[in-house]
Amino acid sequence: TKSIRHHGHWLIVKKLHKMGLRGACLNTIRSYLTDREYYIKINDCKSEKAKFNVGVAQGSVLGPIQYLLYV
After folding, report:
1. Residue 60 vs residue 6, higher pLDDT
2. pTM of the entire structure?
3. Phi-psi sector, 56: left (phi>0), alpha (psi -120 to 50), beta
4. What pLDDT, on the 0 to 100 scale, is given for residue 44?
5. Tens digits of per-residue pLDDT, 4-58?
6. What are the helix (H) ranges across 1-71?
7. Which pLDDT value is given to residue 30?
8. Which of 59, 58, 67, 51 is nearest to 3 (CA)?
9. Distance, CA of 68 to chain centre
10. Phi/psi at 11 (5° precision)
11. Which is nearest to 12 in space by CA: 21, 43, 41?
């Protein structure tokens, strides 16, 4: 099955645009999805930051909404 983790965030922005979302609202969502970074922390040891442009951040409030927009 298809999954949001296999597609770029651009797909969500594109769908929102097709649905009529424009202007500041769409730009805010685009900004939220662009240049996301993550790192892994185990005890006091942190990895270097890495960027990702697919998937949703675990535990994010917008994650379920992003998924619903995708499907």
Report:
1. 60
2. 0.60
3. beta
4. 94
5. 554 577 888 888 899 999 999 999 888 888 888 888 999 999 999 988 777 666 7
6. 10-18, 23-33, 63-70
7. 85
8. 67
9. 12
10. -65, -40
11. 21
CA atoms within 13 A on the CB side of 28: 5
DSSP type of residue 22: -
User: What is the distance between the alpha carbons of residues 31 and 43, in angstroms, rounded to a whole number?
Assistant: 31
How much is the pLDDT for 57?
A: 67
Token reading at 21: 């979302």
Residues with Cβ within 8 Å of 11's Cβ and at least 6 positions away in sequence, in order, are 4, 70
Contacts of 45 (CB under 8 A, 6+ apart): none
Quick check: helix, strand or coil at residue 13? helix
Spatial distance between the Cα atoms of 31 and 34, rounded to a whole number of angstroms: 5
Residue 16 token pair: 């929102």
